[in-house]
Known about the structure:
By secondary structure, this protein is mainly alpha-helical. It has one domain. The protein contains three helices and no strands.
Amino acid sequence: MVHHFRYRLWIAEMNLHINIMRIFDDYIAELNSKKNEPAVKKGIEKFQRQFLKLRKEIDELRHEMHLSKMTLAAYSKELKANEKKVFPKTEHADLKKGIRHTRLNSIR
């Protein structure tokens, strides 16, 4: 149950990052249409590449989390009411690293 809650929080956090990136992407598109200086265009392209890279990382993490949630659900279904079986912590250690990495990249 705790893992499911944690995954939901992580997904909500990633959705927030996606929404913020969309706002910045709209702003950059507006700047791109108004500014014609080569230095500005080069900076805009740099940010767009960074946003695309970060979005790809977030999408990959969300996919991995979806697969992990499905595995967690399968564990839950096979448990009997009084049986105690622990979902291995290592199952989401890589996801946790990915979330931290995404957090760091989103604030740079």
